[in-house]
């Protein structure tokens, strides 16, 4: 998922809860706020007095957090698959 200024905040938080920390870093306490159901990142940030350049930086940070989480998840899946394969190989040697 590529995050842009048009991304809905609520949808982003639902699919990537790890992004809440980025919003907090910029003074946006989005979790639990009713406005996030309707606001895009740009709308929410602007209503908090955040300028355009800072919004772009925030979006870059959000994309980094999501990419890091995806990479971590991919590594966990690889590890789980490796453990399953090793377990199956051990069972066939019995």
Automatic annotation (TrEMBL):
Gene3D superfamilies in the record: SP0561-like
InterPro entries: CHP03980_redox-disulphide, DUF1858, ScdA-like_N_sf
Residue intervals of the DUF1858 domain: 3-55
Domain of life: Bacteria
NCBIfam families in the record: prismane_assoc
Protein name as catalogued: DUF1858 domain-containing protein
Organism: candidate division WWE3 bacterium
